[in-house]
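Because showing beats explaining, we let one protein speak, sequence and backbone structure tokens together, and leave readers to judge.
___
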Amino acid sequence: MSKASEYPMNRAIRIGDGDNVATAIADIAPGQLLFADEDIRAAAAVPRGHKIALAAIARGSPVVKYGFPIGRAAANIAPGEPVHRHNLATALGDKGDYHYSPQPVQAAAAAPSTAFRGYVRADGRVGTRNEIWILPTVGCVGNLAARVARIAGERHAGRVDGVHAFKHPFGCSQLGDDLGHTRKLLAALAQHPNAGGVLIVALGCESNQLGALLDLIPADRRAHIRTLSAQAVEDDEAACLALIDELVEHCGDMVRTEAPLSKLVLGVKCGGSDGLSGLTANPLVGRMADAVAAAGGKVVLTEIPEIFGAEQLLMDRAVSRAVFDDTVALVHDFKDYFIRHGEPVSENPSPGNIAGGITTLEEKSLGAVQKGGRVPLVDVQRYGGEARLPGLTLLEAPGNDAVSSTALTAAGATIILFTTGRGTPLGFPAPTLKIASNSDLAARKAGWIDFDAGRVLDNGFERSAEALLDLIAATASGAPTKAEANEERDIAIWKSGVTL
């Protein structure tokens, strides 16, 4: 991709050599040149992040960005004309015809000798935080958990990195796989390496029975877990606080020790994307994925509906036929999920995405998958599953920011890189770095944004990647994210079934 600094007068970027559209990197007025060295002028105003035709595109012909079709022209498009909802339509169908044709994945350059200071757990995993987590089995005890977390957080300030309750409205009036999702997700969170101690608080009469939840947690990962059924004790608040005191004695005063980048589990996520996300923030995060994977670490990518239209690119990186088959099954299952509910698989992008310049799901997906860099696809995990292998794991979860980021945490992510072109204050159990696709957002919402990826348009990727990797190492070593400083720490569970 060209850098703006190479051609200071450029107002747009052509990403792939075969692209017939470019993306505006600044607002373009009618008649302005797009490139310093080419006589292509805008026929009308084009906002930053939006597309503009580089050549005549006949109605029905592919519109190409990132070197791949992002849909078909819904009308004849003249050179210099804006390309958006009025003249571009998705070409996605309900099903995909996928083929196994593994492509050699060019290995990323050897990772720098970046290290971080984390908490080494008994099983060798390394946490980036040493916190006490309170997990309610059911929404009925959510406020109890939150109240206990506030009291315990003040009581044990300085001994642990924090005491946090993760409320949710589920755990009762659920059936079958829907209840299973809740149970599996909570069991996975209870095993997270950032939690030096976990208190699971039950009500007692809920569908999500405590015993069944504990059955999902291996015995060798239960030493740091305590449980309480509120209906079984007289003073539930005091009983919870006593158990947290016990947990703090178990894990409090732990010290950070140096750990290699290979011990990091990186979750990658995008939300509120704009037309620059696929040019700046997402490919920059892809370089972080490459660095972590090259060191021997794990990278987790999710948001399955937001790879539709680009899924074959991931399938081509599968390390085996079995991983390819698992990926196909996951994509088909998610498309069937849409179809069962009478929704088209292309019911995306969001209004915010559209305002930011993204037109079709293909365009959004081709930008989104760049967060996985060039890392080989080594495993596919269903919702609530854990990343087990070095390399890229594809995780089942919807595109919803809170649901998918919670699933990334449950999969073991100890840092989440969250790219955004529109901005969001949300934070999740794992430290979440917000990475802006454009410098305007980074400046306007400095209280939300941790890193400005818009700088790659001037500085290029190499310097920006070095700066972001340094920030990741500092965050993994304890520096708070903006979301943590703002006390934005929440979970959301995927509700996929009926409610009794």
